[in-house]
Write a structure and sequence with these properties.
By secondary structure, the chain is an alpha/beta fold. About 45% of the residues lie in helices and about 10% in strands.
Length: about 325
């Protein structure tokens, strides 16, 4: 994998009826992925479309993707992305001062990407997300959104859903290379917007206020972005470094159940999880962070209230003080 080979092999004979979704931030990444497609695809003119899916803060231009989703139900949709590696980072997981000054080398701009390729092309690794057929994606779309905006599987909303599914598949593949520390929430606002219950509640509110549904969602979108943070990989590395520094003085006297901690890390990697701390010490919150996904903290006041209710669109949970 360090030599840039994909994690998921592509069989050339079966590659003719495939649609490649390229997640590229710039032209350098796009050309790398196109070169890989032409070198591995069995078709002389493979179908592909390019999107900057990884940037989840902006609406995706899905017109081209929508036009290419009208193929046979058995057509395979294959997501692709370039993962940029840092030399020696897998060994010590240590940040360098130059990373903070010049930016994360795992997200290089076009000029920096060209310089990296000139020095060592192996630092650019092709990621291949898990493929899915158009028929499976349409079934998943109807199950998760209730049919979306009512225009069916040929709508822009379905194209956006496919793009988000491609990004999630690539995130899974990328965590297999970089580690589970970098698991972060993705497309939460868009997932809420396409949720049937959220749609119904927003429509009721629009009727009550006499305002268009689209206007209400545009007003809610920045609020959801503020509540649902998506930390960068560089921030996660800095947070892990700070955690190690904090544990340096406590380590000799800390008593840790290694088996339970390993079980907790597995749960954090595989499931949405709410962790309720006892607040006996403020270092408890950092305990599971080493090698596990970062936790989203809900701030509450436990000094004056013995019980805190945290509401979410999927329900409530009650946390009693320890």
């Amino acid at each position: 994998m360090a030599d840039g080979t994909p994690r998921t092999p592509i069989v050339a004979e079966a590659a003719a009826d495939r649609l490649y979704i390229i997640d590229a931030r710039n032209g350098v990444e796009r050309q790398l992925l196109l070169d890989w497609i032409h070198a591995t695809a069995g078709d002389s003119e493979p179908a592909w479309t390019s999107l900057d899916i990884e940037d989840g803060d902006h609406a995706l231009p899905v017109d081209v993707l929508q036009a290419r989703l009208g193929g046979a139900p058995s057509r395979q949709v294959v997501p692709l992305r370039v993962a940029w590696r840092i030399p020696g980072f897998d060994r010590d997981r240590a940040l360098k001062l130059r990373h903070l000054i010049f930016g994360d080398p795992r997200h290089p701009g076009p000029l920096r990407a060209r310089l990296i390729l000139l020095r060592d092309r192996r630092r650019a690794q092709i990621l291949v997300g898990e493929a899915a057929s158009l028929d499976a994606l349409r079934t998943r779309f109807c199950a998760q959104t209730g049919g979306g905006d009512g225009e069916g599987a040929d709508s822009p909303e379905f194209a956006g859903f496919v793009a988000r599914q491609a990004a999630l598949a690539l995130d899974v593949a990328e965590r297999g290379v970089r580690g589970t520390r970098y698991k972060v929430p993705r497309f939460v606002a868009e997932s809420l917007r396409t949720n049937p219950k959220f749609r119904a509640a927003l429509a009721d509110l629009a009727g009550t206020l006499g305002r268009p549904v689209g206007e209400l969602f545009r007003e809610a979108r920045p609020l959801m972005k503020e509540v649902i943070a998506r930390p960068s990989a560089l921030f996660l590395d800095l947070r892990a470094w700070l955690d190690r520094k904090m544990f340096g003085g406590y380590a000799p006297e800390m008593e840790i159940d290694a088996a339970e901690l390993a079980r907790l890390r597995t749960i954090l990697r595989e499931h949405p999880t709410a962790i309720l701390f006892t607040h006996k010490t403020y270092i408890d919150g950092a305990t599971p962070s080493c090698g596990s996904p970062m936790k989203t903290t809900c701030r509450c006041c436990t000094c004056s209230a013995g019980r805190t209710s945290i509401s979410r669109s999927w329900g409530n949970f009650i946390a009693g003080r320890g």
